[in-house]
Amino acid sequence: MSKSLLLDFLRRHQSGGIALAFSGGVDSTLLLALLRELQQEQPFPWLALTMHSLFQTEAELIRVKELARQWSVPLQILSLDPLRLEQVRNNLPDRCYWCKRHIFESFRECARRQGLQTLMDGTNADDLLAYRPGVRALRELQVVSPLAELGIDKKSVRALARELGLASACKPSSPCLATRFEYGTVLTAGLIEQIQRGEESLRRFCPEGTDIRLRRHGDLARIEVPPLLLPVLAGRHAELSAALKALGFKYVTLDLEGFRSGSMDITFSQNDHTEV
């Protein structure tokens, strides 16, 4: 995948100003790095937009702030509460659509006030193949997704990020914490904190950079890690179980299939993809 292809795409939107939805993940970090390169080549109006909510960890927000500081990127952080939306709070199957629409309407209004014509995000080509109701909201709001529009998948994103020397190249994905719950579970600040603290506990048992998910099924905690780590965690089952039960879980299990993205969505057919 050519870096020049992406740069050419970004240049076409440069003159009207660009606001980038920046999460700190590898996709949006790659776009931010390229926009920064264009900025040094020929200055243009730009802004990075980040959401602060219960669905993201404080560690993620700290990383976003630090990178913006290091790269001298203008950053605006919007504090939002998606749980105010009934569809999000009740964790309906199209929760992501309503949440994403709420976030990007706020981003779009912020960009408009700054006089920036284009709102971009880091959706990649792989996201179009999975169950992603939020993509529909992006389309409705005319958000530009350079990676997806150019057919650039996650593997290619990571390859280019490594080529550019970005620290996020090997960073595990950190999806919204709401993805850890069964659909229909009423989401509360307490439950989200339970998952966040549980995953922080799990990281103490795993090498840095490990893909970890703690899925909640009522009182049961289902742990997903790469299959090679299953024997390691099984060998420390007593410590692991105690740590999670201290957070309120009654049952603790290791998922023998290991880590897989979107495992709460397996009941949806391939035809669902971005629509609900």
Describe the structure.
The structure is a single chain. The C terminus is likely disordered. This protein folds into 2 domains: 167 residues, Rossmann fold, CATH 3.40.50.620; 88 residues, GMP Synthetase, Chain A, domain 3 (2-Layer Sandwich), CATH 3.30.300. The longest helix is centred in the middle third of the chain and has 19 residues. Strand 1, helix 2 and strand 2 form a beta-alpha-beta unit. It has 276 residues and is an alpha/beta fold. The chain is globular. Helix 2 packs across helix 8. 42% of the residues lie in helices and 12% in strands. The chain contains 11 helices and 7 strands. The relative contact order is 0.13. A 4-stranded parallel beta sheet has the order 3-2-1-4, sandwiched between helices.
Sequence of secondary-structure elements: HEHEHEHHEHHHHEEHHE
Major β-sheet annotation: 4 strands, parallel
Total number of domains: 2
H/I helix tally: 11
Q: Kindly state the percentage of residues in helix.
A: 40-55%
What fraction strand?
5-15%
Shape: globular
Question: How far is the N terminus from the C terminus?
Answer: 32 Å
Please identify the structural class as seen in this structure.
alpha/beta
